[in-house]
Amino acid sequence: MTSVATRLALLTSPPAAASAAANATGSVPAGTGSCSSALAEQPWDFPAPLAEGYGPGASQDDVVPPGSSAQPAIPQRYRDASPEQLDAMIRAAKETLGERVVVMGHFYQRDEIVAHADFIGDSFQLAQQAKAHPEAEAIVFCGVHFMAETADILSTPEQSVILPNPAAGCSMADMADEESVEECWAELMDTLGPHALAADGSVLTDGDGEPLASVVPVTYMNSSAALKAFCGRNGGIVCTSSNAATVLEWAFARGQRVLFFPDQHLGRNTAKAMGVPLERMPLWNPRKPLGGNSPDQLRDSRVILWHGFCSVHRRFTVAQIEQARAEHPGCTVVVHPECPMEVVDAADSAGSTDHIRKAVAAAEPGQTFAIGTEINMVNRLAAQHPEHTIFCLDPVICPCSTMYRIHPGYLAWVLEELVAGRVVNQVSVSRDVAQEASVALERMLAAVPRA
Ligand code: SF4
């Protein structure tokens, strides 16, 4: 398999132009966007948040929030080691640690990391694995920050969850911070009140006679523990890309409308498939009063969508799908629901990373798949399924810049520190936040699809 490092291509649009090109729904017009080969060339230049952006990769034009975690320089020997030496260091440390450590690897991680993972999966699958391995003293999470937080919430208090590079955030998760969501909530409560109202002003109730909420907050798994806790204490719930429809059903059974954050695309695509009209899904821009909406628009809404997006998935366009179909007649286009609505509508199917994986695995040999998700996962699927032709919809290879910050050098460092009896880069969610976040996570686990 060709590695991402050797396949990175340079797209020449300057960052400012690319940012301006992103339209109001967070999609990127065909042929724009930026991605630099510098990501693969010198990973040590991007350990800490840069002045404005996340550094080269799909999210390089997104703004890093102030106060984001940084990674100080690690010892020079890890930086000087060859890929082969790092591989050997990681293997030796894992062998020494045995069952004392489990290494989780997200589908979007580079091959050099996934090769050492005890478990590979999406964020939710990995969190479940963290919960299922109380025997391990340490969980080394090769993903991004919110995933490590979720693992810490679901694991035992005695276990340490380690993120090899704490600067591996998620630009989408960072688009909704606790303060902005609290402000949004206060404005919604002022405008709509706490309870759902009928046209005559009477309070609507559920089947048990309990008042329905005016708004139920729903946060995507890709959010901070603080926002999961916000949902826990405000009658809300967490969702993943696999269960978003079930979770929205749960929310609609308890409230008149949903506030969905941070990913507008997952919210819009899911609600649209459930029959919610687009005109009843206003966008909430946290920089504008009432999110840029009138009180009547909010009163008429069913889903209020936070103005967030994934910079990897917004790169996919309908033009790319048309080109794939023209060049590969009969190909199957499968995309992730974090893609813009028009891309999901034009695809043959849309679903979580697990859905994409299963769609490929279940197909008769000899199929051609054009896939709209992160390049590391697409390349891995292509290597695992030589019986198919599999390629990425986006011709410019542009990995998630924050996932890419988990370099094997950092993995070798945290494992060798564990061997020496030191826990570094521990991700620890405070007890209060963890308790409230658990409430929202448990609601998600208990939500079942309608029969
Ligand atoms: S692929 Fe998108 S949602 Fe996933 S970690 Fe990267 S920026 Fe966040």
TrEMBL record:
Pathway: Cofactor biosynthesis; NAD(+) biosynthesis; quinolinate from iminoaspartate: step 1/1
Highest taxon of the lineage: Bacteria
Alphabetized InterPro entries for the sequence: NadA, NadA_sf, Quinolinate_synth_A_type3
GO cellular component, one term: cytosol
List of residues binding iminosuccinate: 106, 123, 220-222, 241, 336-338, 353
Principal location: cytoplasm
HAMAP family in the cross-refs: NadA_type3
Family according to the record: Belongs to the quinolinate synthase family. Type 3 subfamily.
PANTHER family assigned to the protein according to its UniProt record, in alphabetical order: QUINOLINATE SYNTHASE, CHLOROPLASTIC, QUINOLINATE SYNTHETASE A
Name the UniProt record assigns to this protein: Quinolinate synthase
Phylogenetic classification of the source organism: Bacteria, Bacillati, Actinomycetota, Actinomycetes, Micrococcales
Gene it is expressed from: nadA
